[in-house]
Amino acid sequence: LNFSNASLDSGSKLIFNLSAYFLDPENKSMSYSSYNTSNLVVMIENDTARVQTASGFLGTEYMFFIGSDGELATTSNIFSVAVVEKKPTLTINTQGMKSLRELVGLS
Fold first, then answer.
1. How far out from the chain centre does Cα 62 lie?
2. pLDDT of 72-84, one tens digit each?
3. Distance between CA 73 and CA 49 in Å, rounded?
């Protein structure tokens, strides 16, 4: 199973279950690491990898993971992580607002 290219809003994070991508045929426990990029921060705990952006970075980085059973190691495919500017969302609280009918006197 290959990692797909991903897109990430700045300030957000991606979470990967690494055990879904690496399998040891002898069912030994696995340890993981990653290729370090200068603009992505990767934290790995057990089988879970969290990838987030370095402060202020927008653009694309390429990365891969390494899985090892202590005797042999293998690398994943190289995949891209595109970091895009988080689009602002607008929330309107309509509680207490008059309807158009009320505003024009039709109610």
1. 13
2. 999 999 999 999 9
3. 17
SS (H, E, C) 61-104: EEECEEEECCCCEEECCCEEEEEECCCCCCCCCCCCCCCHHHHC
Confidence (pTM): 0.78
3 state DSSP class of 20:
helix
Q: What are phi and psi of 9, to 5 degrees?
A: -70, 140
What kind and span of H or E run contains 53? strand 48-53
| Tens digits of residue pLDDT in 17-57 | 999 999 999 999 999 999 988 999 999 999 999 999 988 89
Buried b (16+ CB within 10 A) or exposed e, 24-58: beeeeebbbebeeeeebebebeebebebbbeeebe
